[in-house]
């Protein structure tokens, strides 16, 4: 980020600390798309991801004083979004049921690989289709870059169980991709 943009961002953060609604709206506009994508990777669907993102931004603005200007502001927001998604997952985990992956019928709908965006949407839908505990560990390790030790500490599981979750998630994703019937568009 250029120095001018960094200065503008710091001014926005300072205004948010004073409760300036316009500054909050601007920060929301600047980061909402990226943060929605982060939330979507952890959530089951768009509605849940939107709810998590809104809860996350509420935390951002109520806890803005906790941001000390050290490190990336975007990274600080991202961490809040991931933590909000994990909180929502834990809250919903009590109401979730599990389904044996072998009992699930494969989706017979063809997948179109028209461009990178379509392929990314398809991959995201596959990740969202993973059981919650596998999806969370996979996202944290592969996408967010947490170590297995950190994942274990955050989720309250062993480091080895984190490795098993990521391994199983990868295997399930590979199987889903192998079973897909891509349609190539000219």
From TrEMBL:
**What domain of life does the native source organism fall in?**
Bacteria
Per UniProt, residues of the RNA polymerase sigma factor 70 region 4 type domain are: 122-173
InterPro entries listed in its UniProt record: RNA_pol_sigma-70-like, RNA_pol_sigma-70_dom, RNA_pol_sigma70_r2, RNA_pol_sigma70_r4_t2, RNA_pol_sigma_r2, RNA_pol_sigma_r3/r4-like, WH-like_DNA-bd_sf
Do you know which Pfam families this protein is assigned to?
Sigma70_r2, Sigma70_r4_2
Domain called RNA polymerase sigma-70 region: residue spans = 31-94
Q: Which UniProt keywords apply?
A: Sigma factor, Transcription, Transcription regulation
| GO MF terms, alphabetically ordered | DNA binding; sigma factor activity
UniProt KW Transcription keyword: yes
Q: Name one GO biological process term.
A: DNA-templated transcription initiation
Isomerase as a keyword? no
**Cross-referenced Gene3D superfamilies, in alphabetical order?**
1.10.1740.10, Winged helix-like DNA-binding domain superfamily/Winged helix DNA-binding domain (1.10.10.10)
Q: Which family does it belong to?
A: Belongs to the sigma-70 factor family. ECF subfamily.
The molecule here is called: Sigma-70 family RNA polymerase sigma factor
Organism per entry: Hufsiella ginkgonis
């Amino acid at each position: 980020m250029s120095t001018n943009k960094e200065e503008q961002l710091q001014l926005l953060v300072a205004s948010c600390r004073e409760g300036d609604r316009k500054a909050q709206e601007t920060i929301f506009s600047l980061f909402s798309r990226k943060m929605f994508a982060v939330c979507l990777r952890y959530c089951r669907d768009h509605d849940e991801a939107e709810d998590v993102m809104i809860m996350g931004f509420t935390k951002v603005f109520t806890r803005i004083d906790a941001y000390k200007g050290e490190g990336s502001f975007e990274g600080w927001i991202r961490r809040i979004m991931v933590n909000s998604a994990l909180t929502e997952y834990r809250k919903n985990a009590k109401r979730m049921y599990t389904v044996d992956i072998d009992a699930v019928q494969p989706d017979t709908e063809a997948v179109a690989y028209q461009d990178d965006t379509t392929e990314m949407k398809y991959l995201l839908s596959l990740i969202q289709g993973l059981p919650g505990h596998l999806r969370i560990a996979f996202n944290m390790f592969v996408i967010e870059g947490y170590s297995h030790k950190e994942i274990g500490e955050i989720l309250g599981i062993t480091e080895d169980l984190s490795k098993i979750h990521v391994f199983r998630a990868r295997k399930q994703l590979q199987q889903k991709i192998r079973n897909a019937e891509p349609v190539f568009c000219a």
